[in-house]
Amino acid sequence: MLPNRDEMTDKSAFDPKVFLAKVGVGKTVVEFQENQIVFSQGDVANTVFYIQKGRIKLTVTSEQGKEAVVAILEPGHFFGEGCMNGHSVRIATTTAMENCIITAITKAAMITALHDEPKFSELFMAYLLTRNSRIEEDLIDQLFNSSEKRLARLLLLLANFGKEGSPQPISPNVSQETLAEMIGTTRSRVSHFMNKFRRLGLISYNGKIEVHSSLMDAVLRDKPELKEDQ
After folding, report:
1. What is the residue-wise DSSP string for 53-76?
2. β-strand 56-61 against 93-96: which pairing, if any?
């Protein structure tokens, strides 16, 4: 039986971002304070999260107790989606880097939404594809680029270069230790490169890190000043 006109109108009017912002069946909206843990490595995985406001840090701890930051997620990002792929426990710890507003969606509610709402499925699939491409790019970056160029690329990503709207300042909560963990080098090297970038006019400090478009030019053109010091 064909759907009636009202049903067709309701479907076409569905807005996935409005859907994610509201409390509903299997959905809650939760506020997390700075440094509050959303979930810990080893916790039971049965919920997907969506960031409405704030930034979330993903860290992984090895069996030897070494901790590393593997990602920083922003508004519009999902996390904890591994439970949709058969992961029964969390493989990372997620922590609020600032005050955050998060939508928590149970696995059952997520499956229902993906099945019933094509626009939501499109949004989630686009996110997964973008995330997968980012992981591939990170791997290539780690394998072939110097730590200096890896840092430059990370700063551009954190400042949202290449996305809609103007580039954003990087929060002071993103420390040099965090940057070092994310690119696989030491804090002293990051400090050296940050001072160098500032001296060259590629970035500036004003409480937050301001990334200039000249840094992107340097990365794209692989200028000599962005080759790692010997």
Report:
1. ES-EEEEEE-TTS-EEEEEEE-TT
2. antiparallel
